[in-house]
Amino acid sequence: MKTLALALGLTAALATNSNCVNSASQKSPAMADSLSAAPEDLAKAKAPTTGADQISQYLDYLKGKKVGIVVNQTSIIGKKPIVDSLVALGVNIVTIFGPEHGFRGTASNGDKVNDSVDQKTGIPAISLYGKLKKPTKEQMAAIDLMVFDIQDVGARFYTYINTLGHVMEACAENNKEMLILDRPNPNGFLVDGPILEDHLHSGIGMYKIPISHGLTIAEFAQMINGEGWLPNKMQCKLKIIKVANYTHDTPYVLPVMPSPNLNTQQSVMLYPHICMFEGTILSQGRGTYMPFTVLGAPLLKGKYDYSFTPHSIKGMSETPLHQDKECFGLDLRKYDLKDIRKSGKLHLGWLIELYKAYPDKERFFDMSQSKQMGSFDKLTGTENLKKQIIAGASEAEIRKSWEPGLGQYKEMRKKYLIYP
Length: 420
Hints:
Layout: H1 4-8, E1 20-23, E2 26-28, H2 39-44, H3 59-62, E3 66-71, E4 76-77, E5 80-81, H4 82-88, E6 92-98, E7 116-117, E8 124-127, H5 137-141, E9 145-149, H6 160-173, E10 177-181, H7 217-226, E11 238-241, H8 265-274, E12 294-297, E13 307-308, E14 327-331, H9 338-343, H10 349-357, H11 376-380, H12 384-391, H13 395-400, H14 405-413
Parallel strand pairs: 3-6, 3-9, 6-8, 9-10, 10-11
Antiparallel strand pairs: 1-2, 1-11, 4-5, 7-8, 12-14, 13-14
Keywords: Signal
Pfam family, one: NamZ_C
GO molecular function, one term: peptidoglycan beta-N-acetylmuramidase activity
């Protein structure tokens, strides 16, 4: 085999050791080559090593196969797109599948993405956020194996876990294996929120999980299989390349932002707490270069000193709520994230505070003026939270209403954990 570092022009940043995992309790032998690191060396490492960066664990497995790959701009080896890297190493990628925001991650929130041909490699790029939600039978027939490598942020309404489920369904229907190159969940320490109610199932809530699920993509895939969430309880055959040197409490700074409006680490960490505001009349900063770190509305003038003005930004938010209007509210860009890590809970205080401060309470949850992603009930997964906020319920009362569902989920989640 050619030296991998020479073929890719990569640096020593590509630490390479982990196990291929078929289930939470069953491991297959690791594949080794000259870049494999000793376990004691990995134990000394300061940062997690993603599944994709451990090339020695899966390259030989891909060779000689016709490969489909589900990726976006976060799918990198070192600093290079994984598709470019694997093609350079002789892997036969026949089809690229892209989720919301597209293969290169440039489409705005909710925009349908068209099929195309990747200009750099000439490989067909099929959108799974347009006409299709999952690969067709014909597309699956053209491949021997599906690779899934996308950075998730751990929230139920972030649509990449939906893409995962749809692709698993296609693999199960067509008897094709899925190889998952796992990545850390930056919000992996956070398991909190109401469990999705059945009648609120939607494109921003497919699974009976809390708002923040506390799983990596590979762990979530195991849960989909284990809980029988695929149609007719089908099973998708999985092979997993674990993240090395990772626990759910390990801080992880994303090397590539996962979508246009999650463009800072602060926004990624605040997302599970702030996205529920998309079901309100408040702007979350879409139409600015600081989305999901600010909250406000024009009618809060006089209540708060801080202000921002949303504008149309191509590729981020082209028709934002309160476009070209000055919004007043909270600036969370410097909010100390240690408070959230310490509590391990969703921050409900901002929602309670801003509802109380808003002068036109009848319109607070009115989305008729907005083109945002969904109703408050669909985002939160419950009809109760809106009613509780309106009734003036305390945070303790709200949290009590999430049980026993949340506790049951936490217990069920343990069965699928790959990492402590």
